[in-house]
Amino acid sequence: FSLIIDGIDFLFVIFYCVELIIKLLAMDFKTWRSSRWNLFEAFLAIGSFLTIFPQKESPRLVLGRPFRFLRVFRLIRYIESLRLLMDTIVVSMPSLLSIVGLLLLLIFIYSGIGTQLFAEVKHGTSLGRTTNFDSFLNSFILLFQVMSGEGWRGLMNDCKLDVPRCTKTDDFSDCGFPKGATGYFVSFVMLCTYILQNLFVAAILDNITFGLLNEK
Description:
The protein is mainly alpha-helical. The protein contains 9 helices and no strands. It has helices at residues 2-26, 29-33, 36-47, 59-70, 74-78, 80-118, 136-147, 152-159, 178-215.
């Protein structure tokens, strides 16, 4: 079966190379180079040589796998709706990068606050060896999980831990902050999940609407 797959892959590579040569012969190089799609297809055709009958677990196979997946993007050039969507995403990139920067800044701030407040909290059902606020890096990674909406209520409940389920003395405390934890997690989820993530959709929809109006 693997030989059949490799044979089909070989035929595709030959087809891409023949197509590339025909385009180069039909157009002068300057005209051909002016199209980003032609450059992408040339990159794809050359890189696809890595996928021709590779040995199992060889470096050539590992490097060639992405080129197999990238072949799907050739469809975008010939399907108008997909091309419009891709152009919209490209045009939206400056706005999206600004939103990403704001999102990372917000996570950075909340990571610092979480490390200061919950670093010593006793581990419970959700807080554990890998998911905790023991360090800034752990807090940063954990807040990415919270941003997806995965298990943040359990983390919040663990961070609300109070006596008698924890130890609280003058010199040591592994208790949480019952009131502070609620405000911390709810505000973070509201800002990241319900506001900033929706800004991604709003930025893309705004550019799609603008593109459709221009076409009309």
